[in-house]
Every structure is written in structure tokens, then in C-alpha cells.
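Quick one: C-alpha cells for this chain, please?
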Amino acid sequence: MKPVSRKLPGWVHIPLAIFLTISFIQTAIGFEDLFGQAFSWAFSGAISILMYGFTLLIGYRRLNGLPIFGFLIGYFIISLFSFTGNFNSVYTSYQKEQLYRDELVKHKQQLHDVVNAADKALNSFSPEITQKRNRLESLTEQLVSQITDPNRPGLGNRALELISEIEDVLGEKLTEFGTRGGDWNAIAQRYRENIDQIARRKLTSKDYERIEEVRQNVMKKEEETLKLIDNVLRNSTSVKEYGFDTNLKVTNMINEIGSTVQEFINNPALFKFTAIPFENQEIGKLAFSFKSGFTQHILVGFLFTILCLFIDWAVVLSLLIFFGNKETKPVINSGRQI
């Protein structure tokens, strides 16, 4: 008596073809960024053919009571490639709007932080003026001490040299006092007041104009950027249609603000800026999809994992369940005719 092998029923090919067609398309799309369009479709086709063949072998051997463990391992290894492409494609397609929205909201906070830091730095900043003021203060004290020196009061050679140095720092001549002598303490005080008066005018107005110019430029760009973000975030259609371009513009605008202020301040202790990345350019890449799906949108990533696994394993699991009755035995051909 010779055992007769049993064949898989024809209906198995219908769901298998449907699921593997879906898997073939999604896997190809998921690998396009990595392999390029032509190779990704060829790669996906090869994977789908292997999965189709392994599924039929597993079903056939299960139906006839033959070992299938090695074939399941082989199918599992191949399905990992399919799952990777499927997940990337499905996650990117479904989450694209949310990913655009997430980055826009994130940029909104980044813009707020950069502008606040810039404003604080500008309030504490005095370009070139600190060194000049320190020097001017030192020279003024020396001048006052020289004029009021009890041993040699008055406008001697050293006092005149100090006045000349002070005028160079200020960029303007001082009013002459004490040419005919008099109360040297009062004269020294008048020189101090004259120096302070010119310093307030010469060493602040120009610098504050530059600071205010930078500040106004930052505020203008902040207002324009916030308006752009809010307009896009108004509805889903705007986010889908303009999300990518808007995120690119906003990223460039924030980096421009930060770079401009950093260049103007030129002091890391007051303001240090690191350019922010344009994250949306990573959408569609395998690493980004898995990182986003399993660290930021965990529930969505988990659901799509189940979906992608179901697409690849639905028929295989069905065959294991439907033909898993241990009492099923191969049909015996006895050679007798009834």
C-alpha cells in the first residue's frame, strides 16, 4: 500500500494572491528610497514569489503531516524584509499629515525659544562698547586724579595727554576747562561730567540703533513665520498640501534668525545657536519610520505592526490552523476497487 499525498484546495490561492499582491506593492514602495524605484520593485517581486512558494510548501506539508519547522523559519526570515517595506510604506502614507503637523508645532516652540534667547542676549549686549567704556572709565579716573593731585594740581602734560586719549576714544573734542586755573576739584568734576555726557551720546545711540535694528528684524520674521505656521495648521488639507514646503521655510527662517543674532552678538556666553534640522526630509526613510513609529506614535506603530504582520502571515496561519488536526492521516491506496 502506497500513501497518496493530499493536495491543497484551490481556494488557498485566492486569499494568498490578494494578500501577497498588497504586500508586493507596499514592500516595493517602502524600499524605493533605499534601493531606487526599479530595484525596489524587482526586490519586492522576488520576496513575494518566495513567500508564495513557501506558503504553498508549508500548507502542503502541514496537510500531509510532514515537518514544517524549517520552512516556517525560512518564511519568517523572508517576511522580515516584507514587513520592513510594508511598515515603512503604510506608516508613511497614513502618518504623513501628522508628521507634518508635529514638526510645525515643534518649530513653533523652537521659534519661540530662539526669539526669547535672542531678545535676552540683545538686552545684555553692547558691541564694542564694553571695551571702550572700560577704557574711558579708567582714563577719566586717571584724569581726575591727575588734575586734583595735591602735589601737582592742574592741567599738566600728563593731564593733557589723558584728555587727548579720551578724545580719541570718544571721537570728539572735550570742552576746555581750567585754562586760567581755579578750583581744580570743580574743574575735574566738570571734565568728568563732560566726558559722561559725550559718552552717553556717542557710545550708546549708534550701538542701540544696531541692536534695535536686529531686534526689529527678528520680531518681523517671527511674526511672518507664526502667521505662516498658523495658516497651514488651520485644516488637514492645508497640512497635507503645504506641510512639507512650510516646514522647510520655517526651518530656514529659524536658522536664519539664530545665525543672524549669533553673528551680531559674537559671544557664545551671551548667545549660542545650533541650527535645527529639517526633519520632514526623512519621511519615507526606513529608519525614520521605525523611530517615529516606536518612539513618538507608539500606538499607531503597534497597530501598523499587527496589520503588516497579518498581511504576510494570514494565509500561513490559516493553513496551520485549518490543517492542524493531528488525526488527519494520508489517504492509503489499497489497490482494491469498490
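Residues 69-123 form the longest helix (55 residues).
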